[in-house]
Design a protein that fits this description.
Layout: E1 2-6, H1 11-22, E2 26-33, H2 47-62, E3 66-70, H3 72-88, H4 95-114, E4 119-121, E5 126-133, E6 136-143, H5 160-164, E7 166-167, H6 175-184, H7 206-210, E8 219-224, H8 227-230, H9 233-244, H10 250-257, E9 268-274, E10 279-285, E11 290-296, E12 319-325, E13 330-335, E14 343-349, E15 354-356, E16 368-374, E17 382-389, E18 392-402, E19 409-415, E20 427-434
Parallel strand pairs: 1-2, 1-4, 2-3, 4-7, 8-13
Antiparallel strand pairs: 5-6, 6-20, 8-11, 9-10, 12-13, 14-18, 15-20, 16-17, 16-19, 17-18, 19-20
Helix pairs in contact: 1-2, 1-6, 3-4
């Protein structure tokens, strides 16, 4: 079998290539350039060239063929332009998930296949298993063995066809074991730090990066005070429903999944005279429900749960973004990690955005399933119930979740069973979808 390893210059993909070579596969390496614009990035001008240099040294050390492919056009069109579009709508996309679906296991896979590869291998910390199904082999994604490095979430949009061509050689290893193997083999990437930031772009100053296409416009930051939630009809009704418990009607599920939009918030000002000369000035007035907290440079540059970048002092506890309104260019914040505006118990995924990695287990309208869910990378799995309805898939959590964010992916898992690759503590990822709002 001929396998193409996506060699990035990092230690994970290097060890993936090392293991495949030791296992006797016909291996070749290919480095993909997906980004060459340094606007907003926080690293050197030629990081991708440095990565390519290391990757080439690794291939030489392993004595495997090395190739280069420029996919920057596809990456901009299928990942970065999507990012700009989502942020312009006040949503927060996950480019790493898109990169795997659209680039690594699509555009890159196509190039590798044309070069004779049967499979594409990457350095992801996840595992793949196979079971027989009525229509042939069914491919499964299991969490990586290293609980601190599991990357299954980033693969939550892959299809059965993509998985049939995917290989994850290090998914059963701990990161420490990967480092040890790299040092033992004297690989040039053995002590290289893990990459951070956006897939193939790197660590960025997000507002600067987004200002390539999204204009910075000053707007107001509004602090939502706890009293606001005591009389908000939607919030009060949601609390009543959760206290009562299910089953919930379609109308009640829709109410539970609706985020507060703060459309009723209007800032008021008053004029006053200040100083010896009684200079006429204007100030914002707090009404006990909300108060003006400061200014920002564009609501589209902020996301739910964000703490950094607000630059607003004078509070005992940190301020967190609880919502944004791009149309009015307003950012709403709350003080403290327990602020009521940060938490919700239900989210909805539109029918067109529901993706089943295991189509054989897909729910029909009216169906329900107990699952474990994560709504962001590295979040511990959260107990929830999937409820498939005609208007979409609802995820009802056992406990309120912090910072549910439109545009992010919710991925659902169940305990893995029926395969030698799984233990009783393992979870299999069944599907995912884009959080609607």
């Amino acid at each position: 079998m001929k396998i193409c390893v996506g060699l990035s210059g990092g230690v994970d993909s290097s060890v993936a290539a090392l293991l495949l070579k030791r296992q006797g596969y016909d291996v070749f390496a290919m480095f993909m350039q997906n980004w060459n614009d340094t606007t907003g990035t926080l690293h050197g001008d030629c990081e991708w060239e440095e990565e390519k240099f290391v990757a080439e040294m690794v291939a030489r050390k392993l004595e495997i063929p090395f190739y280069f492919v420029d996919l920057s056009g596809e990456y901009r069109k299928r990942v970065v332009d999507y990012m700009f579009d989502e942020y312009s709508k006040g949503r927060t996309p996950n480019p790493d998930v898109l990169c795997n679906r659209e680039i690594k296991f699509d555009a890159f896979l196509s190039v590798a296949r044309r070069m004779g590869a049967d499979m594409v291998a990457t350095g992801h910390y996840c595992r793949k298993a196979e079971i027989p199904g009525p229509g042939g082999t069914v491919y499964r994604i299991l969490e990586g063995s290293d609980p601190g490095k599991d990357q299954s979430y980033f693969l939550c949009q892959l299809t059965q066809e993509q998985l049939s061509r995917a290989f994850f050689p290090i998914g059963g290893l701990l990161k420490s074991e990967v480092r040890a193997l790299a040092r033992e083999a004297d690989l040039p990437s053995a002590d290289k730090k893990d990459s951070q930031g956006i897939c193939f772009v790197g660590k960025v100053d997000l507002p600067v990066f987004l200002q390539q296409k999204l204009e910075a416009v000053e707007g107001d930051v509004v602090e939502m005070l706890p009293a606001y939630y005591d009389d908000n009809p939607l919030y009060v009704r949601q609390m009543q429903l959760m206290q009562r418990g299910g089953p919930f009607s379609p109308e009640e599920l829709s109410l539970l999944a609706a985020p507060l939009d703060y459309s009723d918030v209007e800032l008021a000002t008053e004029t006053y005279r200040s100083g010896r000369h009684h200079t006429k000035k204007t100030r914002y007035v707090s009404n006990g429900l909300w108060a003006h907290a400061g200014k920002h440079e564009g609501a589209q540059f902020f996301t739910n749960g964000q703490r950094k970048g607000l630059a607003i002092g004078g509070h005992k506890d940190p301020l967190f973004v609880v919502s944004t309104d791009v149309a009015r260019n307003m950012v709403f914040v709350g003080e403290g990690e327990k602020h009521p505006g940060l938490y919700r118990s239900c989210l909805r995924i539109a029918p067109a955005e529901i993706h089943w990695i295991r189509p054989d287990l897909a729910l029909e309208p009216g169906g329900e399933m107990r699952v474990m869910v994560r709504i962001r990378y590295r979040q511990p799995l959260q107990a929830a119930t999937l409820l498939m309805r005609e208007d979409g898939l609802y995820i009802l959590f056992d406990e309120p979740q912090r910072s549910i964010t439109a545009g992010q992916f919710a991925a659902w898992y169940v305990p893995a069973s029926g395969t030698a690759a799984a233990t009783s503590q393992d979870y299999e990822m069944l599907g995912s979808g884009v959080i609607e709002k």
